[in-house]
Amino acid sequence: MKDCSAENIRNFVVAGHAGAGKTSLADLMLHKAGVVSRLGSVDQNTSVSDFRQEEQDRKSSLFTASLHCPWQDHHFFFCDTPGYADFCGEATSAIRVADAVLIVVDAAAGIGPGTINAWRHARDNNVPRAFMINGLDRDQADFAGVLGSLQESYGATVCVPFTLPVGARADVSGVVQVLQAGDDAPAELADDLETYREALMDTVAESDEELMMRYLEGEELSEAEIAQGLHQAISDAAIVPVFCGSVGKDVGIDELMNGIMNLFPAPLTGAPVPLVEGELSRDDDTATAFVYKSITDPFIGQLTCLRVFSGTVKSDSELHNVSRGSRERLGTLFLVNGKNQTQVDSAGPGELVAIPKLKNTVIGDTLSASASAKPITPISYSTPTMSQAIFPVKKGEEDKISTGLQRLVAEDPTLILDRNAETHQTVLSGMGDQHLAVVMGRLETEFKVETVTETPKVPYRETITGQGSAQYRHKKQTGGHGQFGEVHLRLEPLTDGEFEFSNEVVGGNIPKNYIPAVEKGVVETMVAGPLASCRVINIRAVVYDGKYHPVDSSEMAFKIAARGAFRAAMANAKPILLEPIMTLKILFPEEYMGDISGDLNSRRGRILGMDREEGFQVLNAEAPLAEMFTYSSTLRSMTQGRGSFEMVFERYDPVPPNLGTKIMAEAAKDAEEEE
Ligand SMILES: Nc1nc2c(ncn2[C@@H]2O[C@H](COP(=O)(O)OP(=O)(O)OP(=O)(O)O)[C@@H](O)[C@H]2O)c(=O)[nH]1
Ligand SMILES: [Mg+2]
Questions:
Q1: Which of 83, 130, 238, 527 is spaced 20 to 30 A from 514 at the CA atom?
Q2: Could you tell me the distance, in angstroms and rounded to a whole number, from the CA of residue 165 to the centre of ligand 2?
Q3: What are the tens digits of pLDDT across the range 251-266?
Q4: Domain assignment present for 187
């Protein structure tokens, strides 16, 4: 299936905004390479890459598909990733292991959040990149406009076209290659060809001092020198080649594939791979591979997908999982094209292989032939932006849900599962409503459990706004032995921490050995405050006096007395409810500014500042979590899918009084129901 050495392998990711044509491009490449005799199509549910039912139902990718094909005497290993923001974690993982990223941009829609996401991950991981402006045949296609916005966002001398379109929209008939154009190129392109060729030669010359000297003296550079200079500039991201074409009309794709072959780095030439300690040299002989995906699917079974970084991974061998300090026995190795698998004996640098039935290895793990090797730096993912409390439709199926969720969460680091001890809810957090809907769909089809969701309860907090003191005596006469403890407690607001406890008792009124019991009583009571049974925070508790009895006092008696004193002191200290406040970074095209700020206002949000990034408006804001559960879907519909946001917890703020009353009434109702 593959018959070439590492220097002829090209490993890359196809990424970019939803609908740009990534999957269609992947299918076309497989077809052109002769891997499939019939061209796969997203629209007709015959795509090799979008092979899963959920993807075909939506006509959009939801998961990364690992693919490979020969191209001339080379072999491509690549991943087709989803562009939709809800599934951005898939691209994050794939980009992390790739030698290059091909960012597909729609010639009509231009840059979208998916473009920006792909660029950022590639840049942050120092992965060389190229653009492909696709869909030149579309009615609204605007090659010059999209090229202009790429150059404006990422640098005019950086984003240099390597191919230029001949004809436009319905009449697009081919592309001309900037560096290979002959005299037969259309006359109207002559100026552009000249400009871009010069721009490229300037950058090539800049890659090497000696070349620069000769270039400035007017000497012609040899083809080998130009190629070497281009490689260097692309590896350093000093040049980001821009290709163009139409997947729909099969225009410019051969040129793109030749570009990938000639310009993208070979697996052994890239920068060293960062490890948690030190770096891995790519020509190291030790087999080292990184897990970029792990799937358990009724269709293809359990598969762990690895990118080999160095050495050779062999079938029927043993490797160390150096992230977990365990061993893994590898059985069969497969090269995969979507759901199609081909068995191979070994895999070398740059190759993507799948291994069935690895039990103790998950996404993000490093496998190595050496037990003492350091793991590759783990991937960092965006924090989830949407949460739902999830319940079974049929009572008693909680265990089924939890088994299913645990497995699905293990496959997808952008899902977080929380069995919330405070609210007693199972809360699933992800990147948006579609992301969570796919999980629920999989629970139903793969785990046969139907679920419903609810807006999660907000983890409110309680605190005090003034000082309050109280004393409590616990006294009981049971049989011969009595119980006695008296605690005088003062509570004070604390600004720099969640909790402090101090002891000011003098004269042994409470003997020292009982003080820890007093603290324990306080801590236990703080779990459920008096207002709405929420955790109490930002409090200093001071035990300043008390009484004891030489026979009847016990740790238990002081604990009970401390609880009583705490509750009474809270009531005297002007208690209030606090709610979580999140900071938001919202990215969207400028025309939606009015809608977005209006909507934020209605969510009790506050705009902190504005910025611009890659031609998009950036709004930094904060808003209460209680108002943000539905934000991802609202933002999507407000911006036709062109807005995205990040959200992280910032702090707790007092709940406005009218809302506080409502929350307390609901908590009281819940408590009644529980009884
Ligand atoms: N006219 C035209 N349509 C195209 C072209 N490339 C793709 N399409 C269509 O655009 C739609 C989206 O294509 P996909 O390949 O699924 O896009 P994608 O980038 O994989 O989208 P996601 O998986 O959702 O991120 C499909 O209906 C394709 O047939 C093109 O060059 N011209
Ligand atoms: Mg796709």
A1: 527
A2: 24
A3: 999 999 999 999 999 9
A4: no
